[in-house]
Amino acid sequence: MIYHREDRIIETDRLLLRQFRPADAYEVRDYCNNYKIYRSTLNLPYPYSLECAVTWIAGHEQNFDQDRMYEFAVTDKTSGQLYGAIGISFHQPYHNGEIAYWIGEAHWGQGYGTEAARAVIDFVFTEKNYHRVYARHFASNPASGKIMQKCGMSYEGRLTDHIYKNGAYEDIVYYGIINKTNS
């Protein structure tokens, strides 16, 4: 992982994690207006409109500037193709944050979520001095949990019937990782 501080870009072997641009709103809308993504995420509305995408993107720069949240577009390093999004909150008093991500369905199963998550964890551990990163996923979405495991996160517990969504209760599974370099 290479972080280009002045441009707010994280570079990996295959990806550039960059700030979202207003022009990305159309692709974000197209990716997020997918019931399968909605079903497996906590906060995305459905249907997902262009206005949702524009509003979501509009707050990213201020969040980054104020160290509240670091949100990145997951893009192909060579072509610039947008694959999805990844973000991490910053709870400054606790030196931790929650990582969350989504990848467009056309790009599932290619390791982009794992590569992006590893890079963002490295970014916050080295650049932002986090002590801990945590994540959660619906038990009905084990693929997200596999990304967490591949990033070195450890299973921390399960909250049974914790979320009510789409007429049913969902278990939430938690994972976490400690920054061993600043323990």
Work out the number of β strands. Answer: 9
* Overall average pLDDT: 96
Strand content: 25-35%
Strand order of the largest sheet: 1-2-3-4-5-6-7-9-8
User: By helix and strand content, what is the structural category?
Assistant: alpha+beta
**Helix fraction bin:** 25-40%
* Quaternary assembly: single chain
Gross morphology is globular
Distance between the termini: 21 Å
Order of helices and strands: EEEHHHHEEEHEHEE
Kindly describe this structure:
By secondary structure, the protein is of the alpha+beta class. It has 6 helices and 9 strands, in the order E-E-E-H-H-H-H-E-E-E-H-E-H-E-E. The protein has helices spanning 25-32, 35-39, 50-58, 60-65, 112-126, 142-150; strands at 2-4, 9-11, 15-18, 69-76, 82-89, 96-103, 132-138, 154-165, 168-178. It has a 9-stranded mixed β-sheet with strand order 1-2-3-4-5-6-7-9-8, with helices on both faces. The protein is globular, with a radius of gyration of 16 Å. The relative contact order is 0.15. The model has no long low-confidence stretch (mean pLDDT 96).
Ordered list of secondary-structure elements with their pairings:
Layout (H helix, E strand, L loop, with lengths): L1 E3 L4 E3 L3 E4 L6 H8 L2 H5 L10 H9 L1 H6 L3 E8 L5 E8 L6 E8 L8 H15 L5 E7 L3 H9 L3 E12 L2 E11 L5
Parallel strand pairs: 6-7
Antiparallel strand pairs: 1-2, 2-3, 3-4, 4-5, 5-6, 7-9, 8-9
Task: Report a brief summary of the structure.
The protein has 183 residues and is α+β, with helices and mostly antiparallel strands. The chain has helices at residues 25-32, 35-39, 50-58, 60-65, 112-126, 142-150, and strands spanning 2-4, 9-11, 15-18, 69-76, 82-89, 96-103, 132-138, 154-165, 168-178. The chain is built from 6 helices and 9 strands, in the order βββααααβββαβαββ.
